[in-house]
Structure formats: structure tokens, C-alpha cells
Input
Amino acid sequence: MAVRPIVRYPATVLKAPAASLEPGDEAVAICSDLVDTMRASPACVGIAAPQIGVAARAFCMDVTGHRKARSCSGLVVLINPEIVAHDGAKVAREGCMSLPDCTGNVRRALTVTVRGTTPEGAEREIVADAFEARALQHEIDHLDGLLFLDRVSSLTADLFPRKRYS
Output
């Protein structure tokens, strides 16, 4: 469909809980734009609808080939996702396309089970660990109006300028 510009913090759409989305044509169109935008963005493994300016509970993610991934569900495109189980915790560095100038240390569950619906209406459940679990939690946070900044313990000790490679 279309590659959309990435909304950057402090845009209000990033800080507000997103609305539920019904399966069907609108969900398919939004999710198609999410996938196109993710694929067009170098090093991007996921993107949520608020990041393209749409206040809807939808995201896409694909950790295929990422060096930190252990589990890999391939391309995940879900609407109205929920974390239904989680276990363990680990602090690790995260970045975000909506906050391109910094990264931060964030505590996340090591394993998660996520249930949601595909844009066409099929139920889907994903069990993930390691990097894939972290990415799922990060994208679902976007749908709840949360950024990784909201999860760092200390803005002075756990927030870092992003390293740029030429």
C-alpha cells in the first residue's frame, strides 16, 4: 500500500492508548502500510500503528535474521494484541524509531505469550523468548501509549545517545 513517515516523540499519538480495531478492510489497509513502512526502514524489526500516526491497536514485527533472536515467528501482524503470560526478566538496551537519537536500558520479560487477531480476523497466539519477546513487548507498549523512556529506571543512568555508524 504505502510507506508512511515515522511519527516522532513528543507527538501526542505516541502517548495515548490506541483504540481497538475490527478485522476487515480498514485493518488490512493499516497493517499493509505498517509492513511496507517497516520493510522500508533499515534495521527496523517492528512498528506500531501510532508510530505512523494511526491511533489503532495494530502492529507488525519480524525478527527473522536478527543476531539476538532465538525464537522467530516470521512476519507477525496483529490487531488488538494482549500479553497473556510472561516469565523472567532481563534488562537490555532498546531503541525506537520514534526516538531515533537515544537508546535505553529496559527491563522486560524473558518469555511472553501474546494473543491477537490477524487483520483478516483469524486468532493467533505467539510464544516468544529473548529478542522476539522484547520486541513484542515494545510494540504492545506503543499501543498502550508507552515508550521505552517510560520503562527506564533512571533517565540519567539508563539513557544513552544512539551510536551512529557511517
About this structure: The radius of gyration is 15 Å.
